[in-house]
Structure prediction request, 180 residues.
Amino acid sequence: SQSDSLLDLLNLVCVIVGLVFFSLALLTFALCQWSPGVNNVARINLCLSLLLAHLLFLLTQQFLSLIRPHQVLCAVISGVLHFLFLSGFVWMFIEAVLLFICVKNLSQISSKKREVLSSGFLCVIGYTVALVVVAVSVGLLPEGYGSEQCWIKMDKGFIWSFLGPVCVILAVSTFLISHD
Prediction:
């Protein structure tokens, strides 16, 4: 129908605009270092995760008629999207923790900042948490991936493999930020 094609066009335009702004943010955080003490690793990886997720989403939706007949490809794409969007939320949580530490000026953590909050350690956390959730989800219900839109299937409560971690991350982040 006409409303569906208008909605598809609006979706396409919004995702493309989002990709442009994620790219600009990524460039800004990667190229501009305001202070030697500022660690942009969480912001860079957040933008990278969301940029890749939105790009894959856009490509999947544009070529859905070609991808959909290949159930395994569709399931793999939905698993990668699950990982990328979830890692975006994990990076948001890491940024909330870094802000909490900064605002509270926690001297014990600040003095051990090089070991505890190193870029490598943050990257391991930022991507491993999402990878573990996706791996457990695949192990528990491998047929939960590959809906009609190449996303997580809504039946059997499998959507909670995404919504559960997101709700926990949002709740803990809200608690941290509200207790400054």
In short: Helices lie at 2-31, 41-62, 64-67, 71-104, 107-111, 113-116, 119-140, 160-178. The longest helix spans residues 71-104.
